[in-house]
Inverse folding.
């Protein structure tokens, strides 16, 4: 009767003493890694250890935007691969992740911004990634209710559109990967915090957890936000990462108002907004700006994001906020991630996702599973290494130099 | 809302300040040409969960750069002082002089 007939979507096993592979971290990246290990590489004796509940960290705290409008080598192939996986994900998992290719519209306000974005989108097109230039009239036709006033603080000159980009339902992604991985034999163990590492002859052979010791041949870590803390325990030493908090906001639900993702970055203004299927306006802006492991935001960014919203979409002014929250980002020193082997044998790192971990979930899991299974990276993630900084090969998409503030 | 007790201006809201960087990073001297030292200073961070030493700029106030000790898990600020040692010394001297003056005044 009613909604009473539902069975749990994944098993709740007790941890075994030994596995072939342990994945630390039950966010989207860890879940996707476990799934692709089982599905594509035949490694099903896998434990996924999560300190809280799956999808309770950044996977449940993002603004759900999926895109691949990157132009630097190392990022282009990776994010486009991830977007292609998104396009088939609901069928692959047999779980509706509500991936909606509603387009991602990047506004520009100055000729300089236009030229920089034109370069980016031309390079994308040369790489086989879709991207279109829209002039002011075309933007106005597509999203009529932006601020097109001549007196606007940020007069809209046009926009760049990635039509294949869009949004997805974050919980469904986590639950879909969890159910599919569990069905293939992966043990998803929640409320199991990794508190230390077991080392024998200089090699990490297992982990100490709040639910006892677990051993494994190989261990992969995907714990964005807490990467530096666990990496220090594992003996990786300081990493090129700072933990920063990024806030997101959702309004009260309203009738259909915005059928695409609208984004801009201009000077110190930074803003992205979409409407969820429940009707809430989901939006965000910059980092709070100071190192933090606290999953709660601070007032200056509220006002900053609100003023960014009012600049381009003044109609939002009367809408009430429903919720606000913060997640802890691994901000890497060039704004690009790591999916890599480490200098510890049998220990693999997935980290450094900055603002953009959600869209990367399928590609990241796919590449991380390959890296763990074969003990070497796939060509697609071969540049996403930790040692690129020492070699002077940063993947600096925004050209900002070595600061942990980039996308 | 974070509030920092600026040693020059008193207790002020977060809005007046800009976060600069991890203050524990020591840049090598310009004579030091080793790649390793520069790589570590430019790229690697301890990224502590706990008490973190950092620089803030009182950009909408006295424009001084401050050295702040703040817990990255609780946001509790345990210490705020001038970043530059000579300013710390001068502030301390001024405070001592002020105490001496008020002591002298209270006697008369």
């Amino acid at each position: 009767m009613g909604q009473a007939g539902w069975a749990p979507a994944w098993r709740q096993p007790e941890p075994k003493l030994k596995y072939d592979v342990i994945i630390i971290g039950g966010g989207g990246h860890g879940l996707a890694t476990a799934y692709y290990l089982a599905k594509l590489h035949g490694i099903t004796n896998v434990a996924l250890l999560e300190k809280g509940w799956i999808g309770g960290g950044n996977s449940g705290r993002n603004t759900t935007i999926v895109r691949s409008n990157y132009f630097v080598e190392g990022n282009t192939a990776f994010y486009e691969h991830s977007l292609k996986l998104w396009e088939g994900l609901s069928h692959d998992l047999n779980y509706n992740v509500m991936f909606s290719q509603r387009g991602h519209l990047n506004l520009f306000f100055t000729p300089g911004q236009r030229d920089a974005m034109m370069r980016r989108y031309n390079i994308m097109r040369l790489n086989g990634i879709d991207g279109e230039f829209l002039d002011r009239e075309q933007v106005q036709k597509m999203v009529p209710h932006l601020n097109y006033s001549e007196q606007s603080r940020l007069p809209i000159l046009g926009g760049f559109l990635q039509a294949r980009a869009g949004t997805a339902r974050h919980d469904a992604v986590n639950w879909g990967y969890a159910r599919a991985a569990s069905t293939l034999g992966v043990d998803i163990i929640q409320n199991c915090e990794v508190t230390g590492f077991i080392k024998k002859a200089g090699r990490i052979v297992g982990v100490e957890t709040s639910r006892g010791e677990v051993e494994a041949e190989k261990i992969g870590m995907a714990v964005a936000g807490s990467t530096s803390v666990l990496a220090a325990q594992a003996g990786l030493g300081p990493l090129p990462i700072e933990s920063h908090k990024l806030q997101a906001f959702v309004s009260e639900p309203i009738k259909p108002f915005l059928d695409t993702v609208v984004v801009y970055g201009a000077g110190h203004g930074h803003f992205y907004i979409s409407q969820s299927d429940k009707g809430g306006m989901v939006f965000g802006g910059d980092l709070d700006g100071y190192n933090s492991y606290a999953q709660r935001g601070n007032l200056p960014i509220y006002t900053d994001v609100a003023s960014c919203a009012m600049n381009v979409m003044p109609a939002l002014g009367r809408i009430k906020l429903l919720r606000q929250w913060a997640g802890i980002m691994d901000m890497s020193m060039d704004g690009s991630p790591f999916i890599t082997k480490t200098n510890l044998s049998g220990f693999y790192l997935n980290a450094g996702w900055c603002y953009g971990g959600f869209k990367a979930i399928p590609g990241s899991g796919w590449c991380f599973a390959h890296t763990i299974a074969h003990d070497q990276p796939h060509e697609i993630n071969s540049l996403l290494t930790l040692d690129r900084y020492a070699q002077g090969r940063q993947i600096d998409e925004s050209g900002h130099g070595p600061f942990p503030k980039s996308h | 809302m974070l509030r920092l007790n600026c040693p020059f201006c008193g207790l002020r809201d977060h809005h007046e300040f800009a976060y600069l960087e991890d203050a524990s990073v020591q840049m090598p001297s310009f004579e030091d040409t080793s790649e390793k030292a520069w790589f570590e200073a430019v790229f690697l961070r301890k990224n502590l969960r706990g008490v973190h030493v950092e620089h803030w700029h009182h950009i909408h106030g006295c424009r001084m750069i401050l050295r702040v000790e703040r817990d990255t898990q609780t946001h509790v600020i345990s210490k705020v002082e001038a970043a530059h040692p000579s300013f710390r010394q001068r502030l301390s001297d001024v405070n001592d002089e002020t105490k001496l003056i008020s002591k002298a005044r209270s006697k008369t």
